[in-house]
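Hi V.,

You were right to ask for the full record rather than a summary. Here it is.
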Amino acid sequence: MQQSFDKKLRHDVGRAIKEFSLVESKDKILVSLSGGKDSTTALYALTLMRRVAPISYELEALTIDSGLGETDYSQLEQFCNHLGVRLTIIKSRIGEIVFDIRKEKNPCSLCANLRRGMVYNYAQEYGFNKVALGHHKDDYIETLLINVIYAGKVKTFSPKTYLSRTNITLIRPLIYTSEDHISKLAKNLHFPIVINPCPMNGRSKREEIKDLIKSLTKDNPAVYKNLFAASLDALRFE
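Predicted structure:
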């Protein structure tokens, strides 16, 4: 069972790495690890690829604790130890800033920005040239629809983005990996998923878009495939 899941994952991630030159020799890659299924799969995938890749690269993981209650990271730490990857956990006041001090009506955006800032600062301080994120194929499609519907823009994120201010390159190795495969892989391989304590969990605009896509796909199974093709076109014409 594991070999089957690993084979599919290696194929998708290998395709992304090759097509977009995501990983190169002597890269020092920091995986932004939330403890959710997506970022955990990204870390797992990069460790798999490192075993078979003809190049060598360093790999570490960083978790930003938002400060929203006590969170147990012991199983995540054991998982990283098993993979041979160093995990650093940084405590923050992001939850307090977003919900208590700023009282944000749209907290997800500020939270994401604060988290990214902490990840980039850590990467710069410790000499990482790349940061790997857990965004997958479904995220790619959903971001396009969010921008079209709520911002009037035909735009989505790129599998590889260079940030000139920080001299860091963002990579998204799961760009060809579906959320369905990630969910099945995480369940069958017993990934240590950390429960998200955020009160906004499951209430974002992204969840609304997920529901919309599911509804459309029931009547037309080709919707998912067509939306991904349109997402790739949006990227090419940026």
